[in-house]
Structures are given as structure tokens and as C-alpha cells.
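User: Reviewer 2 asked us to show a designed sequence for the structure in our supplementary figure. I'm pasting the C-alpha cells here. Could you produce the per-position amino acids so we can include them in the response letter?
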């Protein structure tokens, strides 16, 4: 029984003790924004700051955002959800980070937030 507990707890300890990489902010690039490795977007976390705090992007319409960022991972009630990062342990998702863009009734951006 003790051996079974060790086998279950060991992966959790290993995952939680990983070193944290310092994030580098890079300028938004449409091609790099769409790049995936396996099922993960490799550059989105680095570009997140440039999108969230960019006044030019905040003035775009719903169609212009879709043309620039691509199809959202989820759409719900004038909210666009773009997956930024996903932490998994085997088949279980531990944590998701999404960028959420809320559009007003006239298709302009009301706000952009990071949902963790």
C-alpha cells in the first residue's frame, strides 16, 4: 500500500518542482501566434502582453480580430476565448490560461482579459 502511494505522489512532486522559466515578451506576429507544437501554442504566452496592452488591437472589430488572431478556441456570448497555455499531468488538465476578448453590441472590443 505504501508503494502505491509513492507511485501516485511521485509524479505530482516532480511536476510541481519544475523550474519556472522567465517569460520573455515578444512583439505580436500573426504566423508565430498560430504556431503549434503537438497541441500547444508555443509563442502565445510571450505575445500576450503585446496584445492585451496594444491600443491598435483594442480598436479592431470582431471580424478584424478573427482575421488577425485566427478562429477563437471558444465563442460564447460575444466573448472570444484564445487558449494561451495548458498545463497537463498525463491526460488530466491541471491549469488553463486563456485570453478573453469581450465585444460590445456594435462589434468593438469592450475589454481584453487574461483568465487563469
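Assistant: Here is a per-position design you can include in the supplement:
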Amino acid at each position: 500500500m505504501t508503494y502505491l502511494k509513492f507511485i501516485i505522489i511521485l509524479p505530482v512532486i516532480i511536476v510541481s518542482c519544475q523550474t519556472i522559466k522567465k517569460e520573455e515578451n515578444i512583439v505580436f506576429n500573426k504566423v508565430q501566434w498560430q504556431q503549434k507544437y503537438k497541441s500547444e501554442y508555443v509563442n502565445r504566452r510571450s505575445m500576450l502582453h503585446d496584445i492585451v496592452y496594444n491600443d491598435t488591437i483594442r480598436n479592431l472589430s470582431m471580424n478584424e480580430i478573427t482575421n488577425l488572431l485566427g478562429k477563437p478556441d471558444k465563442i460564447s456570448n460575444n466573448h472570444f476565448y484564445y487558449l494561451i497555455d495548458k498545463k497537463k499531468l498525463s491526460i488530466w488538465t491541471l491549469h488553463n490560461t486563456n485570453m478573453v476578448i469581450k465585444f460590445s453590441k456594435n462589434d468593438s472590443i469592450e475589454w481584453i482579459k487574461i483568465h487563469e
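For the response letter, you might also mention the following. Helices lie at 2-16, 30-34, 44-52, 55-58, 62-69. The chain has five helices and six strands.
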